Amino acid sequence: MRGDLLSDPVEGLDEALAAVDAFDEALVAGLLRPGPAQAAAVVGLADAVAGTPLAARVAEAAGRASAGAAGEDHFVALAAARCALLGSVHDALTRRIDEAVGRPAAEDGAEGSGPGAAVADPGTNLLAAARSWLSDLARGGWRGIDHELVAGAVPVVSAMLPDPGLRRRATLLDGFAAELAASCPGATLERVPVRRWADLWSRALLLTVPGSAGDRSVAPVTGRLLPLGVDVQEHATAVQAQVHAVFEPADGGAPRLVRAGVSAPKPDTVVGAGLWQLLRPRMSLLGAVSEGRSMELDAMPVTAEGDLLWDDERARPGEPADAFATARVVLSTATAARVAPLDRHPVRIAVPVLLEGYTARSEEGRLVFDLAGQLLAVDTDRVPAAGPLTPEAVAASHSCVGLLRWDAGEFLLQPLAVEATLRKKAVAAHAGAWAGGTTDKAGVRAEKAATDAVAVLRERAGRLLRK
After folding, report:
1. The pairing of beta strand 238-249 with beta strand 399-407
2. Please, are residues 336 and 310 in contact by the beta-carbon 8 Å criterion?
């Protein structure tokens, strides 16, 4: 991999992010009575998209917002401009990654996805109600939120949740409203999560536009799945494991990068290797990852974005497949799926890469890989406690399969698996090595603790139900 390309500046990136940052700051105080700095930020957002098809609508919206007279359609236009700028940043960064690793460019977009698709959208009135609430948030600003304003989302979410076509958007609104409610009143907040709340607001607002959710294009695929590693994402009440893999079509087509995810609710007492007990029964792929095996897929549904809609009935264990062998042989030729329009955001960049021959060392208090003089920061905070992969193992490694991400103005590497030399033999450590079960003492203890915790919770729940 060419580390120099990851450190070179990307033309126009700083300017695009500056326009987004300024607009996000304008949302902190709200746009009901914008001051000169807020008005300038809104106009700056419009100037940043002046050469695009959005120019006229965003310019009109900026003018109205600067005068404190923006309506719902104007807020939608401003959210679209913000989304477009972050999308351009996403595209520029992913192109730079493709150049650095020498990988084919992502597939072209397909019809039937994104806001442009002609798709009937249910619940038009409910979407309008959600749009009205989000517009009120923009007027009041994050410093102006209170329980009365946030509670306006409750009836909308309650009405949307029973409808399968609206459930995903309802979940987004519900989670956003819960974050805001936990932060009320906004006037007393020591620190406002400016970028995060602006991200949630703009995405939710765009999804209230009829047709914006698009048509989730799904097609069956048959062939061999070669796992690369598992990304574990844990929350106090939920856990998700996302398997990154290379798919080789049975018809001899070009290999593709795909993902398969599984999630489950969890009690906050289940942590570490105990998480696999919650996920393992829901996806046989986790067992294959743990055993270092491929999977043979038969008509497995996959979205145009490369997400496998996993069905255990359509998969069976295949031959042994080492993640590092897969990465060395086919990863550089695997094509990434295209990204849906509303998902084009730099925070969503997670590109599987193979690094070898680096030197790991500490630099300014954090771990970095030295790639022929070019330094790449390693995000060891993302190494899960649910496997044998540790920051120490990463620091002792010479080969790494990981996800290349972008955060806080730089590229970072999230390790999924590493190889080190121990007694003249290559020894590997994988984040998902315990996914299908383990004989490791630490893993066994964690699994037993999780079993005991779940048993106690079930017994208590049973007593409550009997009462």
Report:
1. unpaired
2. no
